[in-house]
Amino acid sequence: MIDFKKLAGENIALLIPYKPGKPVKELERELGIRKAIKLASNENPMGISPKSKEALISFMDELNRYPLGDCYYLRKKLAGKLGVAENKLLFGTGSNEIIELLIRTFVKSGENVVSFFPSFSVYGIIAQANGSFCKWVETDDDFKVNFEKILNTIDNNTKIVFLANPNNPTGTYFSHDELVNFLDNVRDDVLVVLDEAYYEFVDAHDYPQSVKLLDKYPNLFIMRTFSKAYGLAGFRIGYVIGSPEGIDMLNRVRQPFNVNMAAQIVAEAALEDHEFLRKVIKNNRDGKIYLYNEFKKLGLKYYETQANFILVDVKDGNKVFNDLLYKGVIVRFLGPKLAPYIRVSIGLPEENEIFIEKLKEVLEV
Ligand SMILES: Cc1ncc(COP(=O)(O)O)c(C=O)c1O
């Protein structure tokens, strides 16, 4: 018998795969229920932008061709919107692929990456798959990032520091001044990757203006995605902004046609759909206020969010998660280290109301 674990090596055999939120259809099939709602994966509850839909339909007949390897038109449009040179951009199959490209390109076997805990588990999974590992630095009270501790954790083998801002699963953020202070103190051969997946939802005034820092700090990379505010999670497209020299290295490693044609087309159209983005952000802001108020009435501690989800302390996260499932509401339980919490994505008004109604039933209040 072939020992596949041995063939793959220990780093792969011991890998715990990422567990995505349960799809609605699967829950409905399993429990024989109807009209389940999913508030588990920080997706866009408002669908995809009308302009993206139109663009996709009009390009249908071209999908027999290979896509543009360099995302030429999308790159041009995004560079203009961000006010950066085109050679500072690289696109990927979701920001997940960008994380993978950064690690494959810059982190060699035995070297490490650093992030803070709790944060996006994918940094650790990809590092381990690559023969490397992630050193997770505990956050302080209320999940405040301790940059001093991060600096002390970085060693001679550290290649990348991943900083999700706003953070997932907490929704919390760090400020422009905190970031600048960190960049001033970190070695310049350590890459600092800001993961700004939820950037469009942010309303904090002291949130980093990260793009403006790129010229001063060539070790800085900024990742963003079309999966959240733009509603294109199913297409898988994200991007990274960095120094032309750093982007050039990533470009050597990426597959020739890594971003499919449909994704390029819908993303380009989404950048033009200001009206849709405005509605999405308003829905999120209104939903956030509604949920905060309801949590307050229920006496539940929650963390103020800069993203499209809220972390809330329900005492026994696993039980509440499971009980909600049986009532047709999918939220996220985050594992034993975050045992008291659930994370709920902000949905449409009616979805938020159903969630609160079912939560009250589960908590018996
Ligand atoms: C912090 C963070 N980064 C990156 C991603 C990945 O996004 P995508 O690969 O869809 O662009 C997510 C998705 O949930 C996330 O929460």
TrEMBL record:
Give residue numbers for the modification (N6-(pyridoxal phosphate)lysine): 228
Keyword set, alphabetical order: Amino-acid biosynthesis, Aminotransferase, Histidine biosynthesis, Pyridoxal phosphate, Transferase
Q: In which pathway does it act?
A: Amino-acid biosynthesis; L-histidine biosynthesis; L-histidine from 5-phospho-alpha-D-ribose 1-diphosphate: step 7/9
Aminotransferase class I/classII large domain residues are 35-359
rRNA processing as UniProt keyword: no
Classification via InterPro entries: Aminotrans_II_pyridoxalP_BS, Aminotransferase_I/II_large, HisP_aminotrans, HistidinolP_aminotransfase, PyrdxlP-dep_Trfase, PyrdxlP-dep_Trfase_major, PyrdxlP-dep_Trfase_small
Coiled-coil region(s): none
Q: Catalysed reaction per UniProt? A: L-histidinol phosphate + 2-oxoglutarate = 3-(imidazol-4-yl)-2-oxopropyl phosphate + L-glutamate
Q: What Pfam family is a match, any one?
A: Aminotran_1_2
GO BP annotation list: L-histidine biosynthetic process
Cofactor(s) for this UniProt protein: pyridoxal 5'-phosphate
- Kindly give the PANTHER family that the UniProt entry links to this protein: HISTIDINOL-PHOSPHATE AMINOTRANSFERASE (PTHR43643:SF3), HISTIDINOL-PHOSPHATE AMINOTRANSFERASE 2 (PTHR43643)
Q: How does it assemble?
A: Homodimer.
The UniProt similarity line reads:
Belongs to the class-II pyridoxal-phosphate-dependent aminotransferase family. Histidinol-phosphate aminotransferase subfamily.
What's the protein name? Histidinol-phosphate aminotransferase
User: What is the protein's species of origin?
Assistant: Deferribacter autotrophicus
Lineage, broadest ranks: Bacteria, Pseudomonadati, Deferribacterota, Deferribacteres, Deferribacterales
Name of the gene encoding the protein in the UniProt record: hisC
